Structure formats: C-alpha cells, structure tokens
Amino acid sequence: MKYINDYAEGERVIAFCLVKSREVGVTSNQSEYMNIEIGDRSGSVIAKLWDVTEEHKTIIQVKSIIKIDAQVQSYRGKKQFVIQRVRLATEADEVLMESLIPASKYPLEDLWNQLQGFIGEIKSDVLVKVIREILANEELVERLRSFPAGVKMHHNYYSGLLEHIVSLLELAKRLLPLYPHVDRDVLYATCILHDIGKLYELSDAIAPDYSTPGQLIGHLVMGVELVTEACRTHQIPTDNSEILHLKHCILSHHGDIEMGWGSAVSGKTPTAVIFHYLDQIDSKMNALGQTLSGMGEEEEWGYAGALRRRIWRGF
User: What b/e readout covers 164-183, taking b as 16+ CB neighbours within 10 angstroms?
Assistant: First the structure.
C-alpha cells in the first residue's frame, strides 16, 4: 500500500487521508482557497485546494476522512499536494483508521502486557491500589491504549503514551541497580502515572488538540487529581509518605521551576530527580529518532523541533 509521503513530485495521488487542520484564504481576485494539512500513517503533507466552494467548506473539516485526487508539486523546497477533486469517504470505502494516522511500531497488546508485568513487580500495596483503581476506569484505559504522548514533540502518534510509559519502565529497571537510594516502587509508579493527566489534557487520539481543562489546569495537576481520587476511594490518608512522594515526582517531572518548563515544584528526592532525566532521555531520543527517520537518504542535516536546532545524521 502506498501512503501520501511515498509520492514524489510530479506524481498523481488518489488516496484517502485524514484532515488534521484547514485554513481558508482569499486570493487577489477574491476567490477562496484552502490550505489543508492532510495525514495518514506515513505522516502529514500540506495540500492546496483552489476555487473553494461552500460544499468544500462543509465537507472538509478537521478529523474528516476524505478521498483526494491530487498532483504532487514542490513549493519553497517542500512537497505540496494540489487537489483537483475531493469527496468525503463513505462506509462503503471501508477505510481503516490505522491506515490514516501514525502509530507506535510496537504491537498494542505487547505494550499493554509489558505494562501489566511491571505493575506486578511493584511491592507497595498502597501504590498498587492507586494504579489499579485508576486503570479500573474503562474510558481511561481506552484512552491510554490509544492516545499519543503529545501533540508534536515526542511519541506524537497512536498509542505513543503507552509506548513512552513502557520505555520509561525499561529504562528505570536498567538504572535502578546503580542507584540503591532511589525508591523503586515510587519510580515505577511515577513512570506509569506521570502523564496520566494527558488523557484529559488532550482532546482525542486521532487529531489531538488541547482541551479547555487541559489548557486551564495542565496534565501535571490533572494527574495528581486522579491519584487523590483513587486514594479517597481506598481511604488512603493524604499524608501517606508513598503517596506524597508519588505526587511530588509527578509535579516536579518537568524539571526545576527555574527552567520554566511547567513543574509545580523542583525535585527534592533522588527518585524525583532521576525520573526527570529518564523522561528527558526517552522523550528527546524519540523525537530525534523521528527527525532522523524523516530525513531523505542524501540529507546530512535535519531540524529537530524538540531541540530547536538542526541535528547531524553523523554517518
């Protein structure tokens, strides 16, 4: 199967894709055009539609699945599709959602089973109760199995958050023998729950944007609220030392307050400090891996948005 990023300049494209964003503009002769970000499993491309009609504006909405007939052109050094014809997809087209959005390269059930295995390694009854209470919410679990870890920066694809969590747990397991003063159970619980608030900070798994609560409260505080609710259900005291430690790690995992990255408090325990750096390693390496994989074979340099700089392939 050929995806939109597989097409080269000069080729004709007939394909189904997902509308990720759209913007209507007006030309000098007062006719309307539309810039559309379309995507499928291979990534995103900007498409141009000239002579926009009212019907076009009705059917081309964010998260719509459309079928396009387009020509691949180059604009300012970047690939651009010029749409000749477009229509909404129908049930008869039998378009598979997994063909329309980038997804984790790891099988979903493998990731989920790995997560359950790590939960089974936690010895603290209190932390296990909190984690299992949060994961008893079927809606939350459905989101956890599908949501990205972010809109743009890292693990920004279907099931990306679950992949990020499992990757952090693997990193933690390998480093813990070197640092016996780190609380193993709290570290594992933080790996699992540090971004759990993103399941409500973000709107959905298909074309995620920030929800109103997400913008007003943020996922760190939203995650701590979920922990508090689970504690209330099991009558776990609010001053329980493991719960205080877990909440501290969640609220400080974006780094020292002085960095301005959104932490509510600076890390004050070895566990909180090491988790911040684990999170940085995994998120940055994932983002850099995506940058490298998106570069052409002949490209030596590429821009990494996560680092706000160009990076060298190195080989």
Answer: bbbbbbebbeeeeeeeeebb
pTM: 0.84
The alpha carbon torsion through 60, 64, 66, 72 (nearest 10 deg) reads: 70
The CA–CA distances, whole Å, from 195 to 4, 87, 198, 279, 289 equal 31, 38, 5, 10, 21
**What is the domain count for the chain?**
2
Task: Report pLDDT for 126.
Answer: 98
Q: What residue ranges of the chain have pLDDT lower than 70?
A: 315
Q: Is 63 left (phi over 0), alpha (psi -120 to 50) or beta?
A: left
Domain encompassing residue 187: 108-291
Task: Give residue 315's pLDDT.
Answer: 65
CB burial string 30-58: b at 16+ within 10 A, e below:
eebbbebbbbbbbebbebbbeebeeebee
Tell whether 132 and 253 lie within a shared domain: yes
Q: Per the structure block, which two tokens stand in for 222?
A: 């939203």
Q: Who contacts 260 (Cβ-Cβ below 8 Å, separation ≥6)?
A: none
